[in-house]
Design brief:
single chain; about 200 residues; alpha+beta; Beta-Lactamase; Arc Repressor Mutant, subunit A; 2 domains; 7-stranded antiparallel β-sheet; two-stranded antiparallel sheet; 9 helices; 9 strands; about 25% strand; globular
């Protein structure tokens, strides 16, 4: 199965129950070796020190800040539920000041699929995004939002986390999270990754 996955042109990482990388596809290995956003240390994936990470957390129902150690998110999916009942997936958006960004999609492996994936607990798909400094909303998206929501949406496109947006706007993080949820609802998206794909000019 691993050889078959390697033959497909995707950036894929297979994680074991402990959250360690059990297998890294050649394309993912080449991407990680650059070290601009994502690094591999002692068989564990980490966000590089110059990058920012925001996760669409299925447990909190909204975006949360993630530090450079991605283990909390990885552990939530690989160890957060009894084997065979894992149903939560997680998306993480990484970005840096240079305009580089990538999306990580972390999906649990159910019991029936584990034999073919060598006892894998989860698979991580890395989606590189072309460098862009544009943080402009599409006109058809901007018109759907209130003035305050447009400003928050633009901050999200710029790679800022909810806590940073709250500090810049001098409001509570709870207020920002509520605005983000309203933005997602208006655009009919489930999280940050879909929002960026739909809203950016």
């Amino acid at each position: 199965m691993m050889k078959a996955l390697d033959s497909v042109s995707v950036h894929l990482v297979v994680l074991d129950d402990d959250g360690r990388c059990a297998h890294v596809s050649p394309r993912a290995e080449a991407l990680i070796s650059g070290g601009s956003l994502l690094t591999l240390r002692r068989s564990r994936l980490q966000c590089s020190k110059s990058a920012r990470a925001v996760a669409d957390c299925p447990r909190t129902g909204g975006p949360i800040d993630v530090d450079h150690d991605l283990e909390p998110c990885i552990g939530c999916v690989t160890r957060g539920h009894p084997l065979g009942s894992r149903s939560q997936s997680c998306s993480i958006a990484l970005s840096c000041a240079e305009g580089l960004s990538m999306h990580l999609r972390l999906t649990p492996v159910v019991r029936g699929d584990q034999d073919s994936l060598e006892r894998a607990a989860a698979v991580l798909l890395i989606e590189p995004v072309a460098a862009s400094r544009s943080a402009e909303l599409l006109p058809e998206v901007a018109i759907m939002l209130t003035g305050a929501e447009r400003e928050v949406a633009t901050e999200l496109l710029s790679g800022r986390r909810p806590t940073e947006i709250a500090q810049r706007r001098q409001v509570s993080v709870g207020t920002i999270r509520s605005q983000i949820k309203r933005i997602y609802a208006k655009l009919e998206v489930s999280g940050l990754v879909e929002f960026i794909a739909k809203a950016r000019r």
